[in-house]
Amino acid sequence: MWGAAEVAVTLGLVLLLLVAHQLWWTNRQARAAAEKKVEALEKEWGAGGGAGPVESGGDPGAGSGSGARSGSGSGAEGDARDPGEGADGATARGAPRSGPRTPAPRWDQAYAVLRIPRIGIRVPVAEGVSKGAVLNQGYAGHYPRTAQPGQAGNFALAGHRNTHGEPFRYINRLRRGDEIRVETRGAVYTYVVGRTLDRTSAHDGGVIREVPRSDVRKGYGYAAPGYYITLTTCTPEYTSTYRLVVWGELRSMRPR
Prior knowledge:
Elements: H1 2-46, E1 110-116, E2 121-127, E3 140-142, E4 153-158, E5 179-183, E6 187-201, E7 227-235, E8 242-255
């Protein structure tokens, strides 16, 4: 009985340490790494250095052009992979018809900064939605084969809601009219939250298509081509059962 009690106490301590590691330590590590990467990107842009060349005056209807493989698909944010095919070249009301064009970055490369003032988010955006190299680093991950910032179509992102920096933990608090800013080496794009979807299937690929519209929750999303941003994360908290979705539309673009 004494030996069994010692084993039970030891197992309990191990479990507590694992919980503390997941809920506290991974957040601390990822937030520090993400902030360091943001500072590095801003320093590069300020010096005119290296997040890749920016092509001016490109076709705003072009997609990312990336033939990159899809993300790992494991965990909360990697399942809705199919961005689909939609009408291209259309211009949303109030959206710029031309501007700096962000070329397809390398896989797992951090190349932009996402800022959401209402909920205090400032995190890097990296190409792909792999857990180990992107999401677990506290970054927002860009779904391959969706549009790049400022381009016609849907610039779709995933992020953890819990653990590993949990950058998208409070996106459920976003409301119509809240600003979402995406900064690249060439420009700053300001999107405005338009619609939200509180819960949908983890396999609802329609939410990240070029014209985002849920395949599961009919009536949620958009019906016409435009300049969109999509944020996706897990819901309810501490599970990966469903997805929470926030959509926005491009309001303005200004060169850096």
